Amino acid sequence: MTNYETWTLVVQVAVALVALPSMYLVVRQVVILTAQLKATQQASEAQSIISIVEFLQTSQARDARQAVRATLSTLHHDQWDATHVQHASLTCANYDVVAALLRADLIKNKHIIIENWAPSIKHCHQILAPFIETKRAQPGGDRKYWSNFDWLRDQCSQV
Question: Any stretches that span the bilayer, and where are they (predicted)?
Answer without folding.
Answer: 6-27
